[in-house]
Each structure stands twice: as structure tokens, then as C-alpha cells.
Design goal:
The complex is a heterodimer of chains A (about 60) and B (about 220).
Chain A lengths: L2 H27 L5 H24 L1
Chain B lengths: L2 H43 L4 H22 L4 H25 L4 H26 L7 H21 L2 H28 L6 H27 L2
Helix pairs in contact in B: 1-3, 1-6, 1-7, 2-3, 3-4, 3-7, 4-6, 4-7, 5-6, 6-7
Classes of the chains: A mainly alpha (about 60), B mainly alpha (about 220).
Amino acid sequence: MDWMKIGSALFIVAMLVFLVPRIKPMLENSPKGTNNDWLLVGVLLAGVAGFIWLLMKMV
Amino acid sequence: MPNGQVVQNASQGSILATNKLIKNTYLLLSMTLFFSAAMAALASFLNVPFGAGLICSIAGMVMIWFVLPKVADSAAGVGVVFLVTGLFGFGLGPVINHYLAYANGASIVGTAMAGTGIIFVTLSAYALITRKNFSFMGGFLIVGLVAILVAALANIFLQMPALSMAISAIVILLMSGFILYDTSRMVNEPHSANYIVMTISLYLSILNIFTSLLHLLGMGGDD
């Protein structure tokens, strides 16, 4: 295993160490979305996914 | 002063704060994107190795974690934003060189740039125009980010191309969610948002979409 893989892995572990303690407060402080809110997010992200698929077909 | 006038003044103050935050954020974001692109071009021209690029990215992330929170409310924060985005841009140089070496490399890099721009402008415009509050996505986004980091960590050792593609696709969707979340935060909670922090947050979303799109287009076009 080369040092690039070890460096990348340590970088990701450091990000996880930084992010994991923030999960609980973020979950507690986020307001609850309605079904319509999530449906809208789903439609927007589906649009992004469709656009990426189109780009992949173009290249 | 009548109550109605107090409410009206408070409302006008909130609109002014929102407009100022949005203007400052997009101005700083556009400047840092140009600076970052210039640094990426410099690293590409100098043929900087991948290792140096990784070190620059790690240094940028360390600055975000430990330096930026201390200077985010001062003028020094703007300098730190340029330093961070410059480091990330410089770190991007070897990645761009890697894809430019493909037969259709220029097309891959150009399409990834255009695609990133279209995704960012469309989602930001949607959140700005509709003024829809996407703050409910906060918990979902951070859990998604942690899950994708765990998957990326596993794939460093597993080296599965299909998992690698799936990670890139999910990162694009997650970062799209972060663009909606951050933009709506500027519109709906201007007093709790800082333009320096918002700039870095939007910059990281754009950078991650660009690199993931490069990866997907590179894998898709790689025979």
C-alpha cells in the first residue's frame, strides 16, 4: 500500500472525527420536513441525476 | 411608534440583511472561484504530482477546521478564504492533468465545468426565487455525508469501480442538497449566516460536484 492511500484514508478518518459529533445536534435542531417538502427535494435531485446521465451520454 | 411600523421596519431590516449577505457571498464566491481556477491552472502547468495535491487539500481542510472559525467574523477571514480556495485549487491541478491525458480529456474537463456551473446556478436560482426553506434537510445531509465518507474510506482498500462510481453520483446529489440548504439559509436565516462561512460552504459543494463529475465522466468515457 502506497503512502497516498494511507494519507487519503487518514484524511477521511479526520473528517469523520470532525463530523460525527455534529450529527446529534444537527438532527435535533433541524425542523421536520413534510411529505411535500421531501417530494420536492426528490424531484430536484432526480432532475440533477437526469442531467448527469445526459452529460455522461454526451461525452 | 405604532406596532405596524415596527414590524415593517424589522421586515425591511431583514430584507436588507438578506440582500447584503447574498451579494457579499456571491461576490466573494465568484472571486475565489476565479482565484482557485488560476491556482489549478498553475498547478496543471507545473505538472504538480498527486501527492502534493493531496497535501494542499489536507492543508485547506485543516485551515477550515482550525483557522476559519477564529477569523470568520473579521476582515482576516477574507484572506483565509482566498488561502483555502487557493490550496484546494492548487490541489485540483494534478486531477485535471490526469483527465486531460485521456483521448477526450478536454471534452471531459469542459463538460464537467459546464455541468457544475449549470447545477449550481439552477439550484441556487431555485432556492433564491422560491425562497423555500430547506433547513429540514440539515440532519439528512450530515448523515449522508458521514455515510458517504465511510463508503469512500472502505473503497480506498476495496478498489471497486462500481462503488467508486456510485460514491461520485451520491456525492453530486448530496452537494446539490447542500447548495439548496445553504442558499435557503442565506434567504431565510440571514442573521445566523456569515458570508465568509457561506462562501466556503458553497465553494466546497461546487468543488465536490466538479471532481465527482470529472470522475463519472472520466469513467463513463474510459473504454
